[in-house]
Amino acid sequence: MVRFVHLADLHLGKEWYGIDRTFDIINCFDQVTDFIKQEKVPLLLIAGDIFDKKLPSGEALESFFSRIKSLLEQKVKVVLITGNHDWNKLHEVFSIIGSSNPYLRILTRVSRESPVLHLDEPEVQIIPFPYPERGRWEGEVYQSQGPKNVSAKVSTMFGGHLRRAKSYLNNKLPSILIAHMGVENGLLSSERILSLADEPLLSQRDIPSWTTYSAFGHLHRKQKIECDTPSFYAGSLEKLDFSETDDEKGFFYVEIENNRVKPEYIKIKSSLMYDIEVRSPDKIDSLLTSYPDIKNAYLKLTVFLKDSDSLQEVREKVFSMFPKLVNFEPIRLEAESQGLWQPLLSYSNPLLAFENYLKEKNLEEDFKNTLIVTLKDIIKEIEEK
User: Fold this and answer.
1) d(CA 295, CA 299)
2) pLDDT values of the chain reduced to their tens digit, one per residue, 385 residues
3) DSSP character for 52?
4) Residue 262: partners with Cβ closer than 8 Å, 6 or more residues away
5) Cβ atoms within 10 Å, residue 313
6) By CB neighbour count within 10 A (0-12 exposed, 13-18 middle, 19+ buried), where does 146 fall?
7) What is the pTM of this model?
8) Is the dihedral of CA 114, 120, 125, 126 positive or negative?
9) For residue 178, how far is the Cα from the chain centroid?
10) Kindly report the CA angle at 356 between 352 and 360, in degrees rounded to 5?
11) What's the CA dihedral at 78, 79, 81, 87 to 10 degrees?
12) Chain centre distance of CA 64
């Protein structure tokens, strides 16, 4: 029997509303490592985006490394691939801090020479597909060639890699594809489906039917990929923003025996998040009753104000009541006779605001996609400065 844990998208070092989320994420990762040790699971697969930035902070790096080291000491094999947030030379960073270990494999690029990683104890074959170098389709390349053409090229690259890998496989042994890519119709959140406007995508048809299991990372919501082989996104390990407020968080524990696959999703305790709208300042106090744990939750609070309400008093009240309030959005009724609400603060998510704006415009879909890609590049450049 082959047993392993599949997780993805830790995003260690993520900063959100000025808060370093490393402590929250490590608390979630500790629940995974505790499970592995308790159940004596021999293999851990991490499908990319271990860190949120190309060059992680020393704290994020050390937090992750110390946990991985404790698994290696228990003879747990760890195989990880890099995602779009990770540095493609991450293996060099780990070697600098002394993580050279036969039980640890860090795969940062697609290898033509060695497309399959053969393991023993458990005896299994791993086909890694880290996130390809973004320079092949970023910015002007993506816009000039068109999303469909770029996705076709990525699909061709993916298919070529799998064909090479298949020739290296022992058909008597289980094989696992581990990849960090988007797949068509994948759910980004409860409201939004991944589209070509976001990035190049694979189709469900690209996922091979001859692998035993496919372990995907990249999308933060846990979900099954509709294809011919058991294929799953594990989702992010921790809630990383308010789009994930209602998402379950956890990891997959998988058993393979006689080519029968039994995936089990193990839920973990992640951070509480609430996105609440209050129609009047008079209703604020009732939140403590309606949400007994609200003081322990990251909170986005929208409050509607009448002309007679003091914004300063309401602001002071909510920040004193809720210690983890990170986003306060007051909205004032400009004039009752007009019946119009005028936001006092703009959207905290400029990309979402822009997408909502484009919905009202009579523009061709390809042009809308180009505009969204351009804004994503601008936001990325600003955040990396």
Assistant:
1) 9
2) 999 999 999 999 999 998 999 999 999 999 999 999 999 999 999 999 999 998 888 899 999 999 999 999 999 999 999 998 888 777 777 665 555 678 899 998 888 888 999 999 899 999 999 998 655 545 445 555 666 777 777 888 888 899 999 999 999 999 999 999 999 888 886 556 655 455 778 889 999 999 999 999 999 999 999 999 999 999 999 999 998 999 999 999 999 998 899 999 999 999 999 999 999 999 999 999 999 999 999 999 999 998 889 999 999 999 999 999 999 999 887 643 345 444 544 445 677 677 767 766 777 776 777 787 788 778 766 765 5
3) S
4) 254, 255, 256
5) 10
6) middle
7) 0.83
8) negative
9) 15
10) 165
11) 40
12) 17
Long-range pairs, 72-77, Cβ under 8 A, ≥24: 72/101, 72/103, 72/104, 74/36, 74/37, 75/42, 75/103, 76/36, 76/37, 76/41, 76/42, 76/43, 76/44, 76/103, 77/42, 77/43, 77/44, 77/103, 77/104, 77/105, 77/119, 77/121, 77/122
HSE toward the beta carbon, residue 142, CA cutoff 13 A:
25
Q: Which residues are CB-contacts of 36 (< 8 A; sequence separation ≥ 6)?
A: 5, 44, 71, 74, 76
Strands (E) located in the chain: 2-7, 15-16, 19-20, 43-47, 77-81, 104-107, 117-119, 124-129, 175-180, 213-217, 223-224, 231-233, 250-257, 260-267, 273-278, 298-305, 325-335, 340-343
For residue 13 the two structure tokens come to 């070092």
Residue type (1 letter), 108: T
Q: Helix, strand or coil for residue 197?
A: coil
Lookup: tokens for 230: 């058991």
Tokens coding 83: 């995602």
Strand arrangement of the beta sheet that strand 213-217 belongs to = 117-119, 124-129, 175-180, 213-217, 231-233, 223-224
CA distance 339 to 335: 6
Name the residue type at position 190.
S
Checking DSSP bridges between strand 250-257 and strand 260-267, what pairing results, if any?
Answer: antiparallel
Give the helix ranges, DSSP H, for the chain.
Answer: 22-39, 58-73, 90-96, 139-145, 147-166, 287-290, 311-321, 350-359, 365-384
CA end-to-end span of the chain: 48
Kindly report the length of the chain: 385
Cα angle for residues 335, 276, 190 (degrees, 5° grid): 115
Per the structure block, which two tokens stand in for 217?
């990372």
